Amino acid sequence: MKKKLFTVLKLLLPFIAIAISILVYYQAADNGKQKKTAHPYYLFFLGVLGAVILLEILIGLFNEKIRKRIIHKAPFLTGVIVFLLLLNYVTTKTTLLPTLYFPSLDRIVGLLFESRVFLLKNVGDSLKLLATGFLWGAVIGFLTGLMLGYFKVVGYWLNPITKIIGPIPTTAWIPLALSTFPTTHGANVFLIAFAVWFPVTLMTSSGIQSISNVNFEVSRTLGASTIYQIIHVAIPAAMPSIFLGVFYGTVSSFATLMAVEMNGNSSGIGWYINWQKSVMLYDGVYAGLIIIAVICSLTLTILFKVRDRVLTWQKGVIKW
After folding, report:
1. pTM of the model
2. 148 and 280: one domain?
3. Are residues 198 and 101 in the same domain?
4. Minimal CA–CA distance to 136: which of 7, 13, 253?
5. In degrees, to the nearest 5, what angle opens at C-alpha 80 toward C-alphas 82 and 2?
6. How far is Cα 144 from Cα 204, in angstroms, rounded to an integer?
7. Residues 28 and 60 in one domain
8. CATH number of the domain residue 278 falls in
9. Are residues 179 and 307 in the same domain?
10. Domain-located, residue 110
11. 73, exposed or middle or buried, with CB in 10 Å at 0-12, 13-18, 19+?
12. Which residue, 56, 74, 105, sits at the end of a domain?
């Protein structure tokens, strides 16, 4: 009985926090310095969040997995709501933080809603650039790592070069890339591809080199050709390391994307953040940061799902 009561209390915590947030929003006096919005967007966001939590609770009545998940996450969601409550109180009800650099949550959420079409266009432009650079970097990095790891002669000549060029920060190549490539877009694709290339190359090569020679000797004894050994021995055994390289490359690609879009682009989330900062509209800066954080987190989550599906024997070994 006590356990059920405790569970119900945990599920009620987010709604209690939302109720307190609404109470503070209307009852505490504003500092009068924040720009007013057309609607209480912060409360709309809390309402949507509360509706999602309630929906999960209702579905959890019929699904044990979802029920356990929402019970486990209820305290954390409560903490998030309380944090937003404190942040909103400090920015709109007090003068502890400068208004210019710390806009209200109403302004940030409102901008995300009111400028959604323009923001989506910039997100699309960023994703196109990111996907192009990422694919080039991942494919070339995989092939380079395969050559370095499997063929000793190639590794002898290229390993030292890779170890010298690879660790150089991608942003250090920006001046050279902009002066070498005929278009800014081409330079940006190269920079993102370079950011992905090195970790994929390094981890692919390392994964292949760590495979025991016994595996190759046995397959060779059984009549396996070089191509067969690469496809059926080297690549499958190195897949855990290859995925690690892809994960590292993904994080590097997002960091590089922000850098190159802030340096000469005319669209994209990085450009949008830089533009909003230049005109001193920090609600746009925070909105852009939220968008890029969500996209990066979703991308890594999808990659981990793919990894768990491909490497079923290592499911849960590395968690996100």
Report:
1. 0.87
2. yes
3. no
4. 253
5. 80
6. 8
7. yes
8. 1.10.3720.10
9. yes
10. no
11. middle
12. 105
Give me the amino acid identity at 141: G
Residue 111 maps to a domain: no
Q: What is the pLDDT tens value at each position of the chain, 320 positions in all?
A: 677 888 889 899 999 999 999 999 999 999 988 888 989 999 999 999 999 999 999 999 899 899 999 999 999 999 999 999 999 999 999 989 898 899 999 999 999 999 999 999 999 999 999 999 999 999 999 999 999 999 988 888 888 888 889 888 888 898 888 888 888 889 999 999 999 999 999 999 999 998 888 888 888 888 888 898 989 889 988 999 999 999 999 999 999 999 998 876 778 999 999 999 999 999 999 999 999 999 999 999 999 888 888 887 666 556 65
Q: 3-class secondary structure for the chain?
A: CHHHHHHHHHHHHHHHHHHHHHHHHHHCCCCCCCCCCCCCHHHHHHHHHHHHHHHHHHHHCCCHHHHHHHHHHHHHHHHHHHHHHHHHHHHHHCCCCCCCCCCCHHHHHHHHHHCHHHHHHHHHHHHHHHHHHHHHHHHHHHHHHHHHHHCHHHHHHHHHHHHHHCCCCHHHHHHHHHHHCCCHHHHHHHHHHHHHHHHHHHHHHHHHHCCCHHHHHHHHHCCCCHHHHHHHHHHHHHHHHHHHHHHHHHHHHHHHHHHHHCCCCCCCHHHHHHHHHHCCCHHHHHHHHHHHHHHHHHHHHHHHHHHHHHCHHHCCCCCC
Among residues 72, 105, 138, which one ends one of the domains?
105
Q: Which residues span the domain enclosing 287? A: 116-314
Same domain flag for 64 and 120? no
Statement to judge: residues 138 and 50 lie in one domain: no
| Same domain? 82 vs 205 | no
**139 and 275 share a domain?**
yes
